[in-house]
Amino acid sequence: MSDFLIVDRDGAVVTARLNRPDTRNALTEPAHMQEIEDLCRSIRADRGVKALVITGEGTAFCAGGNVKDMQQRGGIFAGSPYEVRESYRNTIQRIPLALYDLDVPVVAAVNGPAIGAGLDLACMCDIRVASERALFAESFVKVGIVPGDGGAWLLPRVIGMPRASLMAFTGDTIAADQALAWGLVAEVVPGPDLLAHAQALAQRIAANPSHALRLTKRLLREGQHMRLDSLLELSAAFQALSHHTDDHLEAVNAFLEKRPPAYTGR
Q1: Cα–chain-centroid distance for residue 180?
Q2: How far is CA 29 from CA 79, 258, 266, in A?
Q3: Please, what are the averages of pLDDT over each run of 10 residues along the chain (266 residues)?
Q4: Which of 164, 163, 136, 162 is nearest to 150 (CA)?
Q5: Is residue 166 part of a domain?
Q6: 127 φψ region: left (φ > 0), alpha (ψ -120 to 50), beta (else)
């Protein structure tokens, strides 16, 4: 491990902090991306985890790719065109595949600028909560490259094609209040309160049964590219599984008995 991530756990909620404040948490080193992929793999295998919060250390959420590495053609930008292509495929492009398809809900606590791949990282999460100091830019065009980590697929699904096109073609930066108006973030809160607010939201999510959270997220993901009739078939199958869990019966009993439920994950 290169300690790019600081990972903490509070009950069923895991918090991961991008820990390179000196580079504004830029995503360039393959080892850093491997840590994110490994974290997703461990969470997927741990049925006790119900939610993940991602934030950045320091003043930025994530500044995207390291521009100095681009200038020097180092890190994942090193080598021939073929090598750069393979580097993208085997490093940063594994993050959206791992994170976007993670079974548990993911909350991005955007504490500062989320630029380029940093914005795309936030869009890989299910819910985005922003500090009033947060800034957002799909800024690849500003340095003469394209969204290489899935932003052309992710951003339109969050804010719609017209606004995604505006951000991608201009590379302009928008502030937290505009991001809220466009639906890019769900809430804007004062900076000092951000992480605690995001973690409290994650705990509200984690108060629900694990199987229902994971299956619901899978339905939301599959619903983005399936026909309605196909999604209904999948929903029926997932519903049948849910009805035969202990936690479903506990939820129903607790509701009827007007008491807090005690879930076991079974």
Answers
A1: 17
A2: 14, 52, 39
A3: 87 97 90 94 95 97 87 85 91 92 95 97 97 97 94 97 98 98 98 98 97 96 95 97 97 96 94
A4: 164
A5: yes
A6: beta
The Cα 239–Cα 39 span in angstroms is 28
Residue 217 and residue 160 in one domain: no
The reported pLDDT for the residue numbered 29 is 86
Do 138 and 198 lie in one domain? The reply is yes
Is residue 68 in a domain?
yes
* pLDDT score recorded for residue 2: 60
Q: Cβ-count burial of 185 within 10 angstroms (0-12 exposed, 13-18 middle, 19+ buried)?
A: buried
pLDDT at 250: 96
- Token code pair at residue 141: 């065009």
For residues 175 and 252, state if they share a domain. no
Same domain, 161 and 74: yes
Same domain? 113 vs 24? yes
How far apart are the C-alpha atoms of 169 and 50, rounded to whole Å?
A: 37
| Number of structural domains found in the chain | 2
